[in-house]
Task: structure prediction
Amino acid sequence: MRKEITCIGCPMGCRMTAEVEDGKILSVEGYSCNVGKKYAQEELTVPKRMVTSLVHVRGSSRPLPVRTSAPIEKSKIFDCLREIRACEITPPVKIGDVIISRVCGTQADIVATREVF
Amino acid sequence: MVMLDVLIIGGGVVGCTTARMLAGYQLKTALLEKASDICEGQSKANTAIVHGGYDAKPGTMKAKYNVMGNGMFQKMCSELDVPLKWNTSLVVAFSEDGIPKLEELKHQGERNGVPNLSVIGREELRKREPNISPAACAALLVETGGIVCPYELTVANAENAAENGVRFYRNAPVTGIQKGEDCWIVQSGAGTFSAKAVVNCAGLYSDEINNMVSEDKIRILPRRGEYYILDKKYADVFHASVFQLPTKMGKGILVTPTVDGTILIGPTAEDLDVRDDTRTTSEGLAKAIRFGSLTWEHIPMRDVITTFSGIRAHCDRDDFVLGEAPDAPMFFNAAGVESPGLTSSPAIGRYLAELIAEKLHAKGNPNYNPIRKGIPKFREMTNEERARAIASNPDYAKVVCRCETVTEAEIREAIRRPVGARTVDGIKRRTRAGMGRCQAGFCTPRTVEILSEELHISPLEVTKFGGNSKLLSGNLFEKGDGAE
Amino acid sequence: MRTVDILIVGGGPAGLAAAVSAYESGCRSILILEREEALGGILKQCIHNGFGLHTFHEELTGPEYAQKYIDKVVEYQIPYQCCTMVLDITEERVVTAVSNVNGLQQFQAKSVILAMGCRERPRGALAIPGWRCSGIYTAGTAQKFVNLEGIMPGKKVMILGSGDIGLIMARRMTFMGAKVLACVELLPYSSGLKRNIVQCLDDYGIPLLLNHTVVDISGRERLEGVTVAEVDPETKQPIPGTETYYECDTLLLSVGLIPENELSKLAGVKISSATGGAEVDENLETSVPGIFSCGNVLHVHDLVDFVSQEAEKAGKKAFQFVQGQLAENGARIPVTGGFGVAGAVPQVLHAGSGGSPVTLMFRPKGVYRNAKISVSAEGTELYSRKYRILTPGEMVSLELGPDLLSRAAGAKELTVKVEA
Result:
């Protein structure tokens, strides 16, 4: 199967095309450096993203910003957002406090990125 | 049914000045405004000029009330604490063959009773306005030309009228008027009223109101004008309000400082089929700049802070329609009031109030207090005054609108005053919050919060100008668990 | 009147880094004045990741990045006042401020660091025709509503302008359940980072319409839709017949940032028309002695890491000024931007600026491939470097070493330009 991706390594934004079959990369074309080649490999096998969102704070109208402790699989972003949205915290919270551990069965936690007193 | 002596329809500058003038009599008066706030029609979107009165044809109502109104402005603005600046007007000719036309205008103005008109030459013009384009070769100098803030003036009149007993009903469009026994019965969005006298100050809709009761039909031909506002950093570029001598190409485009320190360029003139079409258009905006550049050669487009359009209520009779309708006793018109309507408003208001008071044999109101104090403006205070203001109200230390330096105290007061603000635009017109160069980017969230606190409504219910002009669509998290 | 060695106007990333660096240079009389309720500036609402890769070698969110500096400010016990709005700065460095806790205050500062940041260009400045309805926000205002107040401005969103905040908000609105229809960009390229285009638009199938603009706004009360048209890439004028109507209730604008220099002007600071920020020398000192400028109020940066770096320098130099050690060495050499250069900073160098290298920064005016950047003095090339690509979205930063500066010593002017 042919896949097209854009490299995010630099402003060049090289358009790369790859042949992928059963999760295996057969060929990658269009990159101009190793950054692109490496990015294509990650992006074509298990693309991952950091996810940031907001959690409801009990007793406050101001939400708590959170993020994943590590990038999670792209396909799980919306499940992850749903889980974050369903949860609530009670202050106080410190930066780095784990709000949800192992979100959506991944290795990543959801951690607070701001303090709430 | 609310029983009244006088019911005013329309909360623009004419309706509100008339309300204030009527408050000087022992009359039970109310005002109906169809929009969510007063000053939502042509009174909010015009040139903001106090015209000298040279422009109208001698013998017209426009000429008479313009000159008379101009003479009333100083006293009215000092009583109402409204900023007014006599910055003079200039009507500029861009070619030598315009000079005789300037003389004609001067003569016309003199016939209208405008004092101190003179035609000035290139040198004098340049001395007064160093930034005017080199093509400008002569001008009619109108010493009695001025600038005023039209919303502050309208709001001030309304506040003063309300403080003296006039009731204001907003969101109250008139749906029907019938002749009752010695009175008029008026149905509106705020209920049914009976009034011995009705005053039609309905602006763009003044034909509809008149035509509900009178066979002496009139027709409003809506005419749109588009404008630009430029940043305050150009406050000193022009001193006078600079008009262009009308030519075959059109009436020309005005370039003027505003009393708030910005520069206004406009208006275009375009006849419309739909009377509330306040859209701006790419053609209209381009035209304003094309003609405006005759006066100000290099208009700094990157310092445009906003554009808007206003609709003039041009009447098919080419003049104001003032006074009692011939076939509808005790129904009074201030219809077809377009430019110079702002300037004429105090004279129109006084004329109608006197006429109605006489017909109703009303006595003067001994408790009438013509003085209104504006909301103290933090940006205009000295540091000593600021320190005192903060000491008496700490909200004066919270600057909400950074561009115009408007504090939370001013915003809260704008909401709490009589005929107070109920919308984001209402706050803007009463305090200038959001009217500066960032156009409310920074202050909108806080303004919404303050409105929601003061009016005890959810932020989701706050609107820009009433109706469905809601600002926000929903909370991220459902409440009901002890959250505020 | 209270006196203070260094008064910093603004407690965002620039002000915080300047304060920390001034302290670390030895200054013990510092005061930060911040107009909002808490330190951190715009970073408070930038809850997305991508900050700090250069400075901390880890990927942080905005609040976390800010907190690193706030922690230092607290650790060093650097005084700061929040909810404090500076109203005036004089040439003599008398600063007037107002706050609900302290009322009206005046400070005599030995040195002032301007760190007020920037604001977004609003709809009004674009003169987009149409109705003046509700539902039109700058991307930053919408970001504040969502991220700080937990309120959604709308459900069906169009984005005009592809600056980074616009791209970030495209993803944020999508995350929070809104439908983002497209991102419309007047230019043939986006001014946002490539990473944001891929991760904020492409990931969610949001089209980026280059060479397009919004030509009409519909909706008398709340926004009901916008008309988008293709533009001629040369004239930027809409091409008749290409109009498409999109039904939406929200239009977010990400069409440029403007340094907020109203206070700088009150102090008599000379402003560059190219950057919209102060004109500064290699020490980030403005035309008014003792007043320094850094961060987005000086020129709009692409990455906060570079804001911090610049601000650290301002903090250090301001303290040198306070100590009387910031002697101006030699003749003033103006730096001018030639072809392809939008607003080079600093605008002036001093011939004998001594042993330390000078950072010269600017944004390319367009997209240039396989281009060269050169610095020359009266036609003699002193420096050049090749780039595979230059885009307006990414700042160019040149480090001019002491030897280059000594060769430029006698020059009347330095010119930096792109040779494409």
Q: What stands out?
A: Chain A has a mean pLDDT of 91. Chain A has two domains: 2-45, 52-112.
